[in-house]
């Protein structure tokens, strides 16, 4: 028998909305489950029947080809049927029409909705309005839990632990859902987090969440086991909170020269897609310290685990 | 009721290893694959016994959680341990190992999981205890112990690696 009867099941959630909801043991359960799923991708038949007969819909109201593909492939590898909602929504009637659309789709017999939406809180709103499972694939500047989970997975895989690791998150922390979700997850698993960037993008207010804030990257460069470089978003470059691109690269860009002053085993992470030459120099992105492609591979296993677990919680009879 | 103690369990496995060694086709690559968790432990012991008898073989462990036909009813208790089969199952003569053969549904799931990895030359089934009550047309090729049971009895196979002791017990369920 492979089924272990635990006194109290660790995972009981039908939705994955934000890292704030999760206890440490729940995060670790997802990572452990993902480890089991990683092996599926190495088989000759890269598929298991765990979600056979289930329907997963990806609803992306904000373009992200890679995240959508990762979720779709994850669902397909679990044997689910996958449909993709192709619709761009006008920003004027977000709330109402999102729920309307979702209820229509749900009426077709959908089991899991994967939502990417520009409005913060939309995934939570959706989860309160439909009966099926909801997985947040990014809502505004609020949360992107599967990105945080795949980063934690990659970090644990290459360092063997998360407790006590010194992690830097560098860039536009203020506007980044990746940074917020990573920060929550890292702190819950016992890492020490430093947020690095110019004061306009990394305000002191983040100290209240339990992180250290630092505006001088070069002064702290050598301390970290892991450096997560955030993507510079094009629309932000135009705004007044952003320094000039040249100034940003000069003070906060990761390049070969800065890498030499890091710990030799430092892990350089990036949620992708990379602006080569801005936050990350090409030779660093492709170098031995970079985990960028490994993060993408692990993302698939982590999303399989998440889809599997929320579906189990929804369909299984709790002990 | 104790059916076998530590020494008895060891003797039973030795007998099974004798039978498997005799049945293994000469020249064919042999693999032994245990169903997690106790089948995996038993497979590891059988492997050592088979190697002592001059049979060279590959070893692996199979997690059938994702292939169970009752996955939707076992709920969030399912714990995924992962399949670890480092060799290519194609063309291998494979002995599948489980602790107790009961309804046959675990074996059905294991067969599906195995053939998804490739096309073995043949699959044989070895179980420590056959307690009857099959719900599917499945039978074992190597059986350590055949036990007549009622529907209210539970057969417990205990191994050091998981339970801290070795033995086979039959208990009445409440």
Describe the structure.
The complex is a heterodimer of chains A (319) and B (174). Chain A is α/β, with parallel strands linked by helices. Chain A has 2 domains: 15-143 and 299-311, Aspartate/ornithine carbamoyltransferase (Rossmann fold, 3-Layer(aba) Sandwich), CATH 3.40.50.1370; 145-296, 3-Layer(aba) Sandwich (Rossmann fold). Chain A is built from 12 helices and 10 strands. Chain A has helices at residues 24-38, 65-77, 94-106, 122-127, 145-159, 177-188, 217-220, 234-237, 245-252, 256-260, 282-285, 292-315; strands at 15-16, 55-60, 81-85, 112-117, 133-139, 166-170, 192-196, 212-214, 226-229, 267-269. A 5-stranded parallel sheet of chain A has the order 1-5-4-2-3. A 5-stranded parallel sheet of chain A has the order 8-7-6-9-10, covered by helices on one side. In chain A, strand 4 (112-117), helix 4 and strand 5 (133-139) form a beta-alpha-beta unit. The longest helix of chain A is centred in the last third of the chain and has 24 residues, at 292-315. By secondary structure, chain B is of the alpha/beta class. Chain B has a domain at 30-72 and 79-149: 3-Layer(aba) Sandwich (Rossmann fold), CATH 3.40.50. Chain B is built from 5 helices and 9 strands; from the N terminus they run E-H-E-H-E-H-E-E-H-E-E-E-H-E. Chain B has helices at residues 6-23, 38-52, 71-74, 105-115, 160-163, and strands spanning 2-4, 30-35, 57-62, 84-85, 93-101, 122-130, 142-146, 153-158, 167-172. Chain B has a 6-stranded mixed sheet with strand order 4-3-2-5-6-7, with helices on both faces. Chain B has a 3-stranded antiparallel sheet with strand order 1-9-8. The longest helix of chain B has 18 residues, at 6-23. Chain B is globular, with a radius of gyration of 16 Å. The model of chain B has no long low-confidence stretch (mean pLDDT 93). The interface between A and B is medium-sized, with 36 and 31 residues.
């Amino acid at each position: 028998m492979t089924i272990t009867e635990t006194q109290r099941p660790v995972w009981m959630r039908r939705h994955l909305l934000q890292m704030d909801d999760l206890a440490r043991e729940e995060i670790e359960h997802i990572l452990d489950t993902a480890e089991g799923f990683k092996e599926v991708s190495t088989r000759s038949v890269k598929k298991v029947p765990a979600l056979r007969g289930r329907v997963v819909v990806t609803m992306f109201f904000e373009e992200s080809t890679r995240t959508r593909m990762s979720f779709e492939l994850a669902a397909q590898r679990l044997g689910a049927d996958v449909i993709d909602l192709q619709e761009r929504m006008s920003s004027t009637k977000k709330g109402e029409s999102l729920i309307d659309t979702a209820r229509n789709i749900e009426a077709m017999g959908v089991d899991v909705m994967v939502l990417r939406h520009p409005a913060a809180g939309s995934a939570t709103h959706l989860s309160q309005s439909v009966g099926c499972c909801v997985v947040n694939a990014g809502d505004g500047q609020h949360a992107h839990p599967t990105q945080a989970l795949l980063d934690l997975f990659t970090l644990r895989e290459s360092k063997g632990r998360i407790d006590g690791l010194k992690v830097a998150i560098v860039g536009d922390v203020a506007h980044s859902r990746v940074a917020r979700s990573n920060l929550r997850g890292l702190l819950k698993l016992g890492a020490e987090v430093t947020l690095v960037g110019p004061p306009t993008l990394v305000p002191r207010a983040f100290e209240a969440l339990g992180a250290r804030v630092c505006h001088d990257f070069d002064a702290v460069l050598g301390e970290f086991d892991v450096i997560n470089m955030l993507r510079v978003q094009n629309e932000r470059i135009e705004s007044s909170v952003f320094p000039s691109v040249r100034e940003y690269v000069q003070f906060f860009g990761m390049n070969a020269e800065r890498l030499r002053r890091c710990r030799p085993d430092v892990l350089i992470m990036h949620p992708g897609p990379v602006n080569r030459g801005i936050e990350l120099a090409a030779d660093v992105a492709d170098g031995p310290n970079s985990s960028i492609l490994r993060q993408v591979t692990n993302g698939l296993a982590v999303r399989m685990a998440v889809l599997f677990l929320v579906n189990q919680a929804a369909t299984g009879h709790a002990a | 009721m104790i059916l076998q103690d530590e020494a008895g369990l060891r003797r039973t496995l030795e007998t099974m290893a004798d039978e498997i060694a005799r049945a293994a086709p000469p020249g064919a690559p042999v693999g032994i694959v245990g169903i997690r968790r106790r089948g995996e432990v038993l497979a590891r012991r059988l492997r050592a016994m088979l190697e002592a008898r001059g049979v060279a073989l590959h070893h692996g462990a199979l997690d059938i959680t994702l292939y169970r036909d009752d996955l939707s009813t076992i709920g969030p208790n399912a714990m995924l341990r992962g399949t670890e089969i480092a060799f290519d199952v194609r063309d291998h003569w494979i002995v599948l190992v489980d602790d107790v053969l009961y309804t046959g549904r675990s074996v059905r799931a294991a067969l599906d999981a195995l053939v998804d990895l490739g096309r073995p030359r043949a699959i044989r089934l070895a179980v420590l205890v056959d307690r009857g009550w099959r719900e599917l047309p499945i039978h074992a090729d190597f059986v350590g112990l055949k036990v007549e049971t009622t529907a209210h009895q539970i057969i417990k196979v205990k191994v050091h690696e998981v339970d801290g002791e070795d033995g086979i017990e039959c208990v009445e369920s409440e």
